[in-house]
Structure formats: structure tokens, C-alpha cells
Amino acid sequence: MSTGSAEAELASPTGPTETSLSAGTGRPAARRVSLSLVSLAALLLLLVLMAVHISQGTATVGVHTLWRAFTALLPGSDDGGTQADAVLVASRLPRLAAGLAVGCALGAAGAALQSVSRNVLASPDTLAVDAGAYLAVVTVAAFGITLPPLMAGSTALVGGLLAAGVVLGLGRAGAGPTRLVLAGSALTLGLSGLTQMLLLLRAQQTTGLYAWGNGSLAQIGMQTIDRLAPIAVLALAGLVVLGRRLDILALGDDGAAVVGVSPRLTRVLAVVLAVALSAVSVTIAGPIGFVGLCAPAIVRLAGARIPGLLRHRAFVPASAVAGVLVVLGADVLLRALFGAQAGAAVPTGTVTSFFGAVVLVALAYRSYDAGDAGPSVAFARLRSRRAFVVTLVVLTTALVVAVVASTLLGDAPLLLGDVGNWFTGRSGRFVSFVLDSRMPRIAAAVLAGAALATAGTVVQAVSRNPLAEPGILGVVGGAGVGAVVTLTVVPLASFWAVGGSALAGATAAAVLVFGLAARRGLEQNRLVLIGIGVSAGAAALVSLLIVLTDPFNGTKALTWLSGSTYGRTFPETLPVLAALAVALPVLGAKRRELDLVGLDADTPRLLGIRLGTARLGLLAIAVVLTAAAVAAVGVIGFVGLVAPHAARALVGQRHGRVLPVAALLGSLLVVVADTVGRTVIAPAQIPVGVVTAVIGAPYFAWLLWRSKGDR
User: Phi and psi dihedrals of 451, rounded to 5?
Assistant: First the structure.
């Protein structure tokens, strides 16, 4: 086969397929006609969406007003226009231009990232590019620095490049969808924790950045778009020029090297250009979710009938057009459903994130389980019984010390004598008030940390992936939806109402995830990916609810979502205590089953264990533990990721030892995070979930580095 024919046969960005390899046998004229018809249909749909989009708003705009506004913009026109014309030029046209620029940038960026990583689930969201760019922009704003558009775009570019480099480098591009998406999702969680801390600590300087952080097309004038659009055009043109190299890269690194294409250089150039496009999008409109995932998926569906679309010189521009259709369609739908006034306040990114989550679930459901997670080295390490006993003693002592320190420290420091008097009922009014509020939250931290760590141990064993955590099952997201609905609809709802709603939401999410995964045998990677998709959809719904409610209820919901032990009472810790009291003995009895399920897929079957039933039962326990913890203290990330992995590193692979050590580590982590959160900036407080995210992110990066060579 000649080099030219090899290049021509590469249609799919993830490698040649049966369809692409047969493309050369079709009629070129018929393919050109089909491609022309599709292009014409896309253009007509785009024009219709643009017309509908610009006509939506709080004021009616007719054809005459549109024409007068456009003519007023022409050089030499002395028509000052009416107030309606001014609103059109200052608001609606910039919003339309933002939709065009953002959709084009994210669609092309998603196509390039999917090709480079050879992963159809890659996008600026799943690779944490948007999260890195958003953190960079918020960091600058938090310190009161106002940057011009080009400098702001450069800042976002640096943040996005760093995040993409971590995920692609440590997550091993090409290793499989599960590992890459898990790496991006966990890094996004850590970066989002840092961003949320800045938003809380510097609330005055970052006013309005929460809604912007969900992706909003609202613009005041064209200044930002005028300055950043040329960069997007150049980056898009660069990706088109790289199209033939990307086609050849689909042959594999060895095949590309044979024909004189440097795989490393091609990847670096494509990633830089894709991240530049994402940075432009974030600077203009904030992180608009999942457009980079949906747009290439739409083009790939069309490419099944028109293979020519899948060659990168057509695939990248087609994905850009599809991205525009997705963004403008979401914005039109948003304002059609909620009205012009609410549509102006609700971020467009909530709609694209929700539909993108549906696409992610659909792609995961249709995917084949490649088993790319595999057993981790953490499961192969053995420790002596003496090491286990010593570890238990050390961790128990550390937890006692942490509880004592947490009892004494805070905005009102106490002495041990004060605590002794409180226990005997002889303390004064002030000490009683402080400890009556402080001790229940310490108890909540201990119990919630143990529950999340235990749930994480089960999830990692069942999925056979040390990068997994309870949040990926969609349980945390479902609990968040249930709780936020109650907090926003019934502002004076009691803790039990909020907790019950969280439990109901978690159960509904678990049923959805398990129901979809069970139809294909509860295969581990598919289960993880479906859970991530459901979590993303739930996050979009939560953002929508927060933006639509009043600021007071929104603040309460944000605090709950950040994870907080504030205001807890001893009765409110009983659900977590009950869940642990039931789950730990059951898991102790099933410790051998956990060992076998975490080993591989074949050994349990050979020993008579029904793998699907075992997984479902174990995951149900994890769901109950996670839901109880979330209902008690809100959303706390990374505990279910860090504690189980650290426990296996300390005491080995046997779950009879891992479970108690992980529970102690989880309690210790949450207690320390809660103490830090309420003492560092006392009397103000940092939510415990934000602190755990900040602590967990560096550990996660180290974990990825340690495991990057494993299969």
C-alpha cells in the first residue's frame, strides 16, 4: 500500500474502521454530493437558529429593527438608531457572536483532543482543560486584578495547558476511556475545590463568577470577542492544516513514524491549538460544558453514512459547525423554556452540560468493556500482621489526638479542663454553648469520613480501579439534586427533610446507573462511565436550581454542596452511625468476596461466585454509606479516593485489613479538614469538602504518577 493510499483510507479520528477502509470503493461523485447536501442542511439549520436566537429577548425585535441595526453598523452610516437598536447591537448581537465563537472553538477543540488521545470520550471537560482555565481566571480575579481580554485569554490558556498536560501525561493517552475520564474527572474535582475556596474567601472580588463559571453567553459589547476571535480563527486553521498529520497519526505511532510524521510533535501542536481554542471559549463565556464531547459525536454519527466527514480536514470544521449548532440550540431552548428574563440569568452551560451528560451515558452504554483498568499494584502488595496491628494503633492514636485538637481549637479556644467540666455538667454557659455545637460536628466528621472511606474501598474493589471513588456512581450527584431541590423550594426545611431528600435522590441516581449498567452485565468500565455521566447531568441540574433561586437559598445550597459540618446535632449523626453499624459487619463477612472481585473477572466465577450479583450487592452497600454521609455533611470529595488507596499501601490487599484502616484514615482526614476549615480564617469558615479537595488533589496527582505504567 502506498503512503498516499494509506493516508486516504484514514477516516476515523480514533483509527481506521471498516466503514472508513471501504470509503475508497464508493463513488467519489456520490460522496461529494452527499457531503454537499449535509453541508447545505447544516448551513440552513444554522441560519434558522441564528434568526430565532437574535429574535429572543425581553423586547420584541422585528425584521425592520434588525435591518436598521445592521445598516447602522455599516461604514459611513449616520443613523444613530433607536434605543431598541442600541440594545440589539450592545446585547443580542454580542450574545450571538459569543455563541458562534464558543461553539466553533469547543467543537474543534473536542475533535482534536479526541484524535490525539484516540478516545471518543475526550473533550475540554473530561480532560480538565475547562477546570484549569477557569481556576486560572478566578485566581486572577480573586486578587482584584482586572486583565484585558488578550491577557485573560493567555491566563486561561496557561491554566488549561497545565491541566491537559497532567491528564494526558499521567492518565496515559490511549490507555482507554475509563482511565482517561477518571483522571480528568478527579483532577476537575480538585481544581474545582481550589476554585470554590477562592470564590468563598474572596466573595466580593469574585461576585458573579459562579454563574459565569457554568458558562454564560451574556455579553456587553463586542470588545472581548473582537480581540479573541482572531486567535480562535488562527487555532482552527492550524488544526485544519494538521489534518493530514492527524489522519496519519491514527495509524499508530510506528505507522506515523514510517511515513515521516512525528507523533510527539503532532500531539503537542494539536493539544496546544485545542487548549488555545478552549481558553478563548472560557475567556468569552466561561466553561460551557460538554460541547466538545457532543459536537464530534454528532459528526461521527453523520460520518457513518458519509465517510469523507471523518477525515480531519473535514472532521475538524464539521465539528466546529456542530458545536455552534449545539451552543445556539441550547441557548434558544433555554430562553424558550424559561422565558427571556430567566434565560438571561440561567447559564447556557447548564443546558449543554445536561445534554452532554446524556451523550456521555449513551456512548458509555454502547461501548465495549475493554478492561483497561485492570488490577492495580496496590492490590498486589502484602504486609505482615504485625504491620497491620501497628498501623491500627498508630491511626487510632492519631485520630484521638485529632479529635482532641479539634475539640480545643476553633474561633473560641478551650482547655482540657473545660472539656472535662462539660462532660460532668459543671461547665459555664459559654463553654457549654461552644461544646454543644462543636462536639456534634466532630462526631459527624468522624462518622462521615469512615462511611465515605468504606464506600470508596468497596467501589475501588468492584471496579478494580484505584482511581475510582463513590462520587463516580452518580450517588453524590443524585443526593445533591434531592437536597438542593428541598433547600431551594422549602427554605425552612428541617435537616431531616433535607437528608431524606438527599437519600431519595441518591437512591434514584443509583437505580438509574445500575439499571443501565445491569443490562450489559454490570461490566466495570461501563458502570464507571455511566456513573460519571449521571453525575455530570446531576451537577447541571444543581447549577440550574441554584441560579434560579434567590441568593439566600443559593448560598445555603452552595454551602451544603461544599460539604459542611456546621450546625449539626447528635441526632443528625444517627443515620450515618446506623449505616456503618450495619455495613461494616456485612462487609467484614464478605471480605473474602471483596478480595476475589477485586482480583479479576474470571477467578470469582471459577469459585462459584455470581459476579454480577456480588457486584450489585456490594455497590448497594456503598450507595447506602455514601448517601448517609452526604445527607449528614453534604458533598465531601476525595475521601473515598485517598483513604482506601492509602490503606492498601499501608496494610496490603486483604480487605479484612483494608476496611478498618481505610475507615480510620477517612475519619482522620475529615476531622483534620474540618479543624483546618474552621480555624485558619476564624471566625469565618472554609467548608470541609473544599479543604479535602485541596488536600486530595496533590495526592491524586502522585497516585496517577505512581500508576501511569500499570495496565
Answer: -65, -45
